[in-house]
Amino acid sequence: MKEASEQSNIVNLSQRLDPSSGRGGDLLNAVRSIATRRLQQYIGNMFEHVDDALFDLAEKAENNAAQMHYFDGMREVRKRRPVMERSYLAQVARDLNDFVSGQRTATQNTPPPSLGNAELSLVADNELEESLAITSLIGKNEQRLTRELFAVNQRLSVICGGVKIEDSTNPIGPAVLAQAFRQSMRELSADMRVKLIIYKLFDRYVMASLDELYQEVNAELMRAGVLPQLRHEVVRTGGAAAGATAAAAGATGTEVPATLAADDSEASAELLQTLRTLFGARRAHPTVPLSGMTAGPLPTANELIGALSVLQSQAASVPVASMIASGAANLEITDQVLHLKEQLFSQLGSLRGQRPGQIATIDEDTIDLVGMLFEFILEDRNLPAQMQVLLARLQIPYLKAAILDRKLFAHRQHPARRLLDGLADAAKSWSEESDRDGRLHDTVKSIVDRLLQEFDDDLTIFDRLSAELQQFQESNRRRAELAEQRVAESTRGREKLEQARRRAAREILNRIGDHSLPPLIHGVLSRAWANYLVLTILRKGEESQDFREALRFVDAFIASTKPVRTPDAKRDLRQLLPGIERALRKGLSNVAFQDADIERLLAQLHTYYRQQLGDAAPATEQPQALDATPAPLPIPESIQPIAETMADLEDETANAEPEAAEIAPEVREELEHVKVLKAGTWLEFNTQDEHFERAKLSWISPMSGRYLFVNRRGLKVGDYSPYELATVMADGRARILASNALFDRAMDAIVDRLSHEDGKTTDTE
């Protein structure tokens, strides 16, 4: 009886509800109402946390450039948040409305359209990272919400007249909701690092709350009598991404090993599919065969790992100096991969007693890919030659890691990938001058040696070594930032002083004009009063009342030297003199003149003005001729006399930078690159004696526009005006180093290289 009662409360799948009917429509509208209300709450909560997350990351950023990416992202999100929220909720509403009206289509990651050679490199960059983030959070949440999502799918199927609803067609399923958010992210113009942070926050605050949404939807439908006693056991497959990968492989006629398909489901099918296609075309037209090929069974992954472990042990025992002397780090590009394959085949033959005729396609592609990665490292001019040699020793450990975990080339956050990027980033800033104690070189060498000696098959060693490298970098960064701050403050202070001197010089010289001043008056203005003007500018500013009064004194002092020929002129001069004396006493006392020196100067001026007025001098006082040179005044050493500053101004005019039309084309081209440089960018400088120094753009002066460069220790390397820097670059004495990660540059280069090889092969056919 109890069983019969339970059965009567269940809406059977065969008893279909018409979604257009009143009952079916009301239930779908209830689901839509619940979803809209909760998703609006979830997405709002997520955006409330974006600002804090980006600010925290900016504070912890490893360099100024990364910090600016996060701050720029914060500003962009604040500006675009309303549009993004509206876009997301509107897309969700459209999906729900389409579902209610019966227009249901699966949302899945379809393979990208065929790309030309010029576009292939784009696959490996932003689209890959975004697709990876979406695929990852969809797969994780579909797995986590298996029970609740299954129940929602079954109940919606009943409401929709028995049409099967799956994860990919459920309008409130993780796949549809994630793709809607991806669509709304197109409203945001931000660095991909910022976008990936936002995807993580979407996962944390929206996707992680979907269980509450599903529970409410299921409860509402159960109250309405839709499958109230639903029981289920779900057997899940590899997910939508795995299906897409298999479909893509089937469409191209390519056999996809199960392990690789599983990897594609977790990582990104796009990049790996592109690489498989390019490697497939490459294998169809081999260029250099391996010697000594014989028939034999394919080596297993364990055999490959074993052979590589032996080679790794041998490589660990070879000193770096011997590696350089033998030229092992300078093989031709084709020889690098071929040399590694020969070594591997030889070692496999030693271990199994028979040299294999070939290896599995997927393993051969992995060997080629790792080989190309390290070829790129040996050619990468962003790395100093000494560091290239050190990093090149990691080829075998990284080949082992790639065979053990084929996600290495698809996941930007893979531990092995992060370690190599970290080592390359540290190496980029290295120079002998900035690393006199050898601490950076020894740290990189130690990590390389430990990986060669200790890495077996435990990939956690990459995380441990990354943490050690990060700790070393962090301790050095703090010291360098303090030194860098002192250099910037010192430079800023000197520029402010220099600008104040030039402003004081121009003001005095403009007022003197063509006047021929007596040496005494000229000396006071060009030395003592110039000193006072400079310090007034620095202390009070150019717009201050004190500065205006100081300039009025200059006008009065110059006016006091005019010939006095009439009683009115004498009266005017006598009225000026008390103010001149008061101003001089005040000004000179502020610039560290001793009282005795001030009185001596004023006595000289009294004598001069008595002569001007025709008054008799006291008997004890010897008259001083108007053109006599007064006794030198004591000037503080920190103040440059105005005469020297004037000479500098004349030199500056003579050596002024040319007008835009007069700049050489090659300098003009480099000037465009210079103008977009941002703080944190690294450059390599080389002097006349071929001495190389790597320096970071630390600060661009807002006053003079000059670029200040420091080395990795925060010590000043040099400063240049934009024109001077462009000229140095045009002469080949400086070049900008890449700011993106080594692995990203390598993958772009590999895809570009393979696509061009494929193009050449097609042309020859």
Write the layout of secondary structure elements.
Layout: H1 2-8, H2 22-59, H3 64-100, H4 126-144, H5 146-159, H6 174-184, H7 192-205, H8 210-223, H9 240-252, H10 258-266, H11 269-283, H12 301-316, H13 320-326, H14 333-352, H15 361-379, H16 385-392, H17 395-404, H18 415-428, H19 439-454, H20 460-512, H21 519-540, H22 545-559, H23 567-590, H24 595-613, H25 642-654, H26 665-675, E1 682-686, E2 692-700, E3 707-710, E4 716-720, H27 722-730, E5 734-736, H28 742-764
Antiparallel strand pairs: 1-2, 1-5, 2-3, 3-4
Walk me through this protein's architecture.
This protein is mainly alpha-helical and 765 residues long. It folds into four domains: 2-231, no CATH class; 286-458, no CATH class; 491-651, no CATH class; 662-740, SH3 type barrels (Roll), CATH 2.30.30.30. The protein has 28 helices and five strands. A hairpin with a 5-residue loop joins strand 1 and strand 2 (692-700). Helix 23 runs antiparallel to helix 24 (595-613). The longest helix has 53 residues, at 460-512. It is flat. It starts with a helix and ends with a helix.
In short:
By secondary structure, this protein is mainly alpha-helical.
Question: Domains counted in the coordinates: how many?
Answer: 4
Distinct helical segment count: 28
- β-sheet strand percentage: under 5%
Q: Taking strands numbered 1, 2, ... along the chain, how are they ordered across the largest sheet? A: 4-3-2-1-5
**Beta-strand segment tally:** 5
Question: What sort of overall outline do the alpha carbons produce when their principal axes are compared?
Answer: flat
Based on CA atoms alone, the radius of gyration comes out at: 38 Å
Q: Which percent range fits the helix content?
A: 55-70%
Averaged pLDDT:
77
Structural class by SSE content: mainly alpha
Q: List low-confidence stretches.
A: 1-17, 106-124, 232-269, 287-295, 325-334, 619-632, 635-640
